Amino acid sequence: MTDVIQLDGVEKVFEVRRKNGRRLRRERKQVRAVDGITFSVPRGEMVGYIGPNGAGKSTTIKMLTGILTPSGGQVRVAGLDPSRERTRLARRIGVVFGQRTTLWWDLPLYDSYRLAHRMYRIPDDRFRANLDRCVELLDLGELLDVPVRQLSLGQRMRGDIAAALLHDPEVLYLDEPTIGLDVVSKAKVRTFLRDLNKERGTTVLLTTHDLTDIEQLCERVMVIDHGRLVYDGALAGLHEVGGSERTLVVDLERELAPIELADARVVKVEGPRQWLAFPASASAAPLVAKIAERYPLVDLSVREPDIESVIARMYADRGLH
Ligand SMILES: Nc1ncnc2c1ncn2[C@@H]1O[C@H](COP(=O)(O)OP(=O)(O)OP(=O)(O)O)[C@@H](O)[C@H]1O
Ligand SMILES: [Mg+2]
Predict the structure, then answer these.
(1) Of 142, 195, 234, 267, which is least packed with CB atoms within 10 Å of its CB?
(2) Are residues 232 and 270 in the same domain?
(3) Which of 13, 17, 31 has the most ligand 1 atoms within 8 A of CB, as the residue to mutate?
């Protein structure tokens, strides 16, 4: 498999000027938004790119589109240097910034698509086929004649996703494509993206704060923090890195003092039910055996750590809160 996205030691430093307190002197400050990032994405993969606010996710995506020029390192997308060959690259990538639309605000949705048709010189049959597919799968039929500014956020987002795909891009960057969407719209967008990736082999880089997006769409996830890549691997592996815990929920015959065990600790007691936390990497079997031996056990279940709390702990451990 060939890598369609390649970053090698990529940096982006912003020079910011800010007023220094009450004094009127302006101070120059450097912000290292992206601080030496190396990764590659093989063709056809769908990768999650997550991290706390201000971590450098959008800045990375902007360098991958050519909107921003890196301060250091090398970026290659589909064999091109994005900032030097931005126009050529534009025909091969699609971008959705959830926070900002690329559609024409005052024009009906369909007019933005017609402009894209001409701008990217999309062959008529491809344009038709892609538009029909998006209209059907993203429920855009009723919306094509509506000026973009009248669309709801969820409708506009679906419109933006369609706009990013009319020219058959090989690579799709999605920067928070489900932000502010209701549950039904989110599900629709996720299904659409999964099918697109599977059927067309489109490579997708997905940034989101909704971890359900990642759980449902990406096997691989990269975590960025303060401009640095702190994790790159399987979603499941985050549990280990995050030092997460599983929970044993134990029902006893009656209310008892908290269970005492060396390798698990009681985190909650409610009547005869007790919750015991233990390292996610450990096996539950020996714990269960010990409890059954010493306590009047009626029932039990094991709860997996949810990814939400794993990530929260991971960010917190790194002193981000
Ligand atoms: N044009 C700019 N000029 C100066 N600083 C910038 C600029 N763009 C981004 N930054 C700074 O770079 C850092 C990374 O910003 P970025 O937008 O990439 O974060 P993010 O990971 O996308 O965050 P969020 O989850 O909030 O969208 C932040 O500290 C931000 O303030
Ligand atoms: Mg961002």
Answers:
(1) 142
(2) no
(3) 31
Looking at residue 143, which CATH number applies to its domain? 3.40.50.300
Global model pTM greater than 0.90: no
Task: Extract the residue ranges of the chain whose pLDDT is less than 50.
Answer: 320-321
Q: Whose CA is nearest to atom 28 of ligand 1?
A: 54
Q: Left, alpha or beta for 158 (phi > 0: left; psi -120 to 50: alpha)?
A: alpha
Residue 66, domain member (yes or no): yes
pLDDT of residue 321: 39
**3-class state of residue 243 by DSSP:** coil
- The pLDDT, as a whole number, for residue 312 is 74
Count up the domains in the chain and report the number. Answer: 2
Q: Ligand 2 centre and the CA of 1: distance in Å?
A: 29
Which atom from ligand 1 is nearest to the alpha carbon of 51? 21
Is 23 in a helix, a strand, or coil?
A: coil
Q: What is the pLDDT of residue 317?
A: 65
Domain containing 141 equals 3-239
